[in-house]
Each structure stands twice: as C-alpha cells, then as structure tokens.
Model the fold of this input.
Amino acid sequence: MKGQLKGFISGVLVTLLLLGSMGTAMAAVGSKPANLEYNDIKVTLDGTPINLVDAAGNTVEPFIISGTTYLPVRAVAGALGLDVNWDAATKTVILTRPGSAQPNPAPSPAPTGTPTMGQKNALEQAKRYLSISAFSYSGLIDQLKYEGYTTEEATYGADNCGADWNEQAAKKAQQYINTMSFSRQGLIDQLKYEGFTQAQAEYGASNVSTEEQDELQRTIYITKTGKRYHYDSSCNGGTYIPSTLGEALRRGLTPCDKCVLK
Done:
C-alpha cells in the first residue's frame, strides 16, 4: 500500500550526523559541492546488522565527507523504534517514540505586509485541492510546489487555508476505507506515508465509518475467467472462486447484472 501515492518524506533523504566530532555552528541554508566517499560502511545495533533502507524500501548507503560519517536518519531511527516525520514549514526532522503525542505543525509566523500574488494564488489553489480531496500539511505543500509554486508560496497556502489536519487525516482514511481493505495499523502506516504525523494518523484511523469496511469484506464469487463477480454463488449455475467485494473492486471486475445490479 505504501507505494501507491506520493508522500513528501518518501522522496527526501535526510542524513543525520552520528559519528565523528560535532562542534557548535550556525544553521546553514543552501548547497555546496562535496566529495562523498563510499566504502561499504556497515551499521550494527547491539551486534545485529541494520538493513539501511529509505521510506520506499530502497537500500541507502552511509558515506563519508571530510572524515565524518553520515547515516540516513530514517533507517537508523527505524532500527531504534522511532517514528520519523518531516515538517516542511520549519524544515525539521521530527523523531518521536511510538504512541507519543504529536501536535499539529505550528503555522509559520504571519507574513508582514500584503501577500504577494503568488501567495494569493497558492492559497486559492490549496482551497480548491481541499475541496476535492484530503491532504496532509506537508502533502499539500508538496502538491503546490509540484504545480510550480515556490516553497514560500506553497507554505503560505497551507498555513492560511483553514484546514484542520486531524480532520484531513480522517477524510483521507475514509477515502482509503471506501475503496480497499486495511488493518488499523496498515491504515495508520499509509496515512503517515501521506505525510500525516503519528497523532494525526491515529486520529484518522479512529474516526472512520466501519460500514463501508464491512461491506468491502462481503463474500462475493468470481468467475473462472476472472472478469466478473456475483453475490449469489449459484447464479447462472457456474463454478466460482470465493473472494471479497473489496478485492473485486480493486481488480475492476464487472458485477453480475442479475444478482449484483438487480
């Protein structure tokens, strides 16, 4: 499920300085060239090797810059049992223990002066998106940036659109439940992949209607050709394969016009 939709954090490799000396320095913004040295570096936890992968399951390798070793924070945090989230507004990697409370992202300080035309347009676009579908805070910013807005414009749109991010998580959870089956933990994981925080994902999973979920678990009967499905196992006197309605919908099977669409 996690590979279905784009989540902002899945496309960002954040590295954490774990080895080597660390000195006090001013926070830096920007980029500069660097020589990355790869030397087949391995990481163990209490003697057990850690499989270093990103959010999409791809292997990532530690590297060395000027004698200092850098490790991917998501992989290391996962090995330590921590949740990882990204706050695009404050450019902060958020590490939390499972089950700990996480507040909604704090809105950026109110801009001084009149909003720019780009900020106004980003705000209107954000509202249009939210009228059609549900988004996480970072997911909305990412979508606006995909449409060509700058980070500042996209953040302004997300900060001022009036969204309740807990309610957005609940709406997104309901959208998923209406089309496919999820366990509670699977739904939480999918919402986190969409950019919701742990607390928002748990809220969303706890505030969905189970009526649709129960209907998706209904037993149906698929033809041997795998093209149609029936509610009645004896319809047309055929031999059918039991499955669930959610599976039939996921595969795009055609409903029987006698026992399903009657």
User: Anything to note?
Assistant: Residues 1-26 have pLDDT under 50 and may be disordered. The radius of gyration is 23 Å. DSSP finds nine helices and eleven strands in the chain.
